[in-house]
Design goal:
It is a single chain. This protein has about 375 residues and is an alpha/beta fold. The chain has one domain (about 50-385): Cytosolic phospholipase A2 catalytic domain (3-Layer(aba) Sandwich). It contains 15 helices and 14 strands. It has helices at about 35-40, 45-50, 65-75, 95-105, 120-135, 140-150, 160-170, 205-215, 240, 245-255, 280, 290-320, 335, 345-355, 370-385, and strands at about 15, 20, 50-55, 90, 105-110, 110-115, 180-185, 190-195, 225-230, 230-235, 265-270, 325-330, 360, 365. Strands 3, 4, 7, 8, 9, 10, 11, 12, 13 and 14 form a ten-stranded mixed beta sheet that branches. A two-stranded antiparallel sheet has the order 1-2.
Length: about 375
C-alpha cells in the first residue's frame, strides 16, 4: 500500500474510493488533537508507520458473532486488552455498540479510567442479557401488521435507549480510549454521515446517542434526531449504506493526519462480519414477484448484505493479504440470520456454534481450516507494533 495521503478538505473529497461529503456549514472534517488518543499512542508505532484498525459490521443481535471472535483474539494478545492493540476502531449499528463497549472507558467514582468498559466476554454476555428486552418475542400480531403496512416501526426504541444509557452513561464520543468512527444515514440530506471521536462538533455527542443513531434500522426502530449548533441530522441505520465500514475506517485515517501522522506505510486491518446465510437462507427469489408489503421486512437485509460484501472486496484489493484479515460466520440458517431474534436460548445456541461457522474470506473464497491460525498470526502482528 502506498504511503501517500489522498485528497484534501472540502466537498467531494475521495479517499481510497470512499466519498467524504462536507456539507456547507458543518465542520465534518474539522479534526481536533484527541488527548485520549495521544495519551495511549506508542512512539514505536510512529516510527514503524503501522496503523492497526478494527472494523465491525452491523447485524442486530448477531453482534454476538464478532464478540466471540474478539474473545478468541484476546487469548492471543499476551494479557493485553483489545483496545490496547488497535489504533482506531469503526463500527456500524450493532458493531458500533460493540466497539463502544470495548473502547469506552470504565468509570470509577465518577472518574474515567484508562481501562475498557467491557471485555469481549462481558460484551458477549451483555448481548445475551439485553437482546430479549430490545427485541421482545412477545410482539403482537397487530404490531407486525402495522409494521408491514408502514404505519409504525416494529419495535419501540425505549428499551434500546434505556440500555444504552445504563451501559454507556454520560460518556461522549471523544471519551473513547482510541478514535472511533461510526457511520449513519441522514434522511434530511439523503447522505451518509460520520460521527468521529476527532470531530470538533460531533465528538461531544453522547456515545449512547451515536449508537442509537447508527442502530435505527428502518422498519425495526424509529429514526433518531440529533440537533444542536452546526448539527441537524435525522439518522437511520448506517448499515443502509455502510454495513461493513472497513473502507471508511481506512479513509478516516488518511483524512486525520494530526492524529495519525504519516507516512502511513502500511495498515493492519481486522474486519469482522456478523454472519452470512447458507444457500437456503440467501435465496430470496420468491421476492421477485412480490409488491411493497412483501419486500418491506426483507429490504434492510438485502441492502446490508450487499454493501458488506462490496466493502470487503474493495479492502481485499487495497491491502496485501498479510495486512488484512476478514473473518465471517457463513452458512447460517434463516433463523440464525434474523437480526431481531432476541430469545436468550437462541443467542446462546448461536454463540456456541459460531466457531464452527467462522472462515477467512479472501479473494471471493471462504477458507475454513485456518481461521484460528490466521487470527493467531494476526495477533502476533498487532503485538509487534507495541
Amino acid at each position: 500500500m502506498t504511503s501517500a495521503r489522498s485528497g484534501g478538505e472540502g466537498q467531494g473529497t475521495s479517499v481510497l474510493g470512499v466519498s467524504w461529503v462536507q456539507r456547507e456549514g458543518e465542520p465534518i472534517g474539522d479534526e481536533v488533537d484527541m488527548p485520549t488518543f495521544k495519551e495511549h499512542r506508542n512512539v514505536e508505532w510512529e516510527r514503524k508507520g503501522v496503523i492497526r484498525i478494527l472494523s465491525i459490521d452491523g447485524g442486530g443481535v448477531r453482534g454476538v458473532i464478532p464478540a466471540v471472535i474478539l474473545g478468541k483474539l484476546k487469548e492471543h494478545l499476551g494479557g493485553k486488552e483489545i483496545w490496547e492493540c488497535f489504533d482506531a476502531v469503526t463500527g456500524t449499528s450493532t458493531g458500533a455498540i460493540l466497539a463502544s463497549m470495548l473502547f469506552a472507558r470504565k468509570e470509577v467514582e465518577g472518574a474515567l479510567q484508562k481501562a475498557a468498559l467491557y471485555s469481549p466476554e462481558e460484551a458477549s454476555e451483555e448481548y445475551l442479557k439485553l437482546a430479549n428486552q430490545i427485541f421482545p418475542s412477545s410482539t403482537s400480531v397487530r404490531g407486525w401488521r402495522k409494521a408491514l403496512c408502514g404505519i409504525v416501526p416494529l419495535y419501540s426504541a425505549a428499551p434500546l435507549e434505556s440500555k444504552l444509557v445504563t451501559a454507556l452513561g454520560e460518556q461522549t464520543l471523544s471519551d473513547t480510549l482510541k478514535p472511533l468512527l461510526v457511520p449513519a444515514y441522514d434522511l434530511r440530506s439523503s447522505s451518509l454521515v460520520f460521527f468521529s471521536s476527532m470531530d470538533k462538533v460531533r465528538g461531544n455527542l453522547p456515545l449512547r446517542d451515536v449508537c442509537r443513531a447508527t442502530s435505527a434500522a428502518p422498519t425495526y426502530f424509529p429514526a433518531k434526531s440529533l440537533e444542536g449548533p452546526n448539527l441537524n441530522i435525522l439518522a437511520i441505520d448506517g448499515g443502509m449504506a455502510a454495513n461493513n465500514p472497513v473502507l471508511h475506517g481506512m479513509a478516516h485515517v488518511f483524512k486525520s493526519p494530526k492524529n495519525f501522522p504519516g507516512p502511513v506505510e502500511k495498515m493492519l486491518v481486522l474486519s469482522l462480519g456478523t454472519g452470512e446465510g447458507g444457500r437456503e437462507s440467501k435465496d430470496r427469489s420468491k421476492l421477485a414477484s412480490r409488491g411493497r408489503f412483501g419486500w418491506v421486512m426483507h429490504l434492510v437485509d438485502v441492502m446490508m448484505g450487499g454493501t458488506s460484501h462490496a466493502q470487503h472486496l474493495s479492502a481485499n484489493k487495497t491491502l496485501t493479504g498479510a495486512n488484512y484479515l476478514r473473518l465471517q460466520a457463513v452458512g447460517l440458517s434463516r433463523e440464525d440470520m434474523r437480526m431481531d431474534h432476541g430469545d436468550p436460548k437462541h443467542l446462546e445456541s448461536l454463540r456456541k456454534k459460531v466457531e464452527q461457522h467462522v472462515c477467512v474470506q479472501e479473494h471471493g473464497k471462504n477458507v475454513y481450516e485456518t481461521w484460528e491460525d490466521r487470527l493467531k498470526d494476526f495477533a502476533e502482528k498487532l503485538l509487534e507494533v507495541q
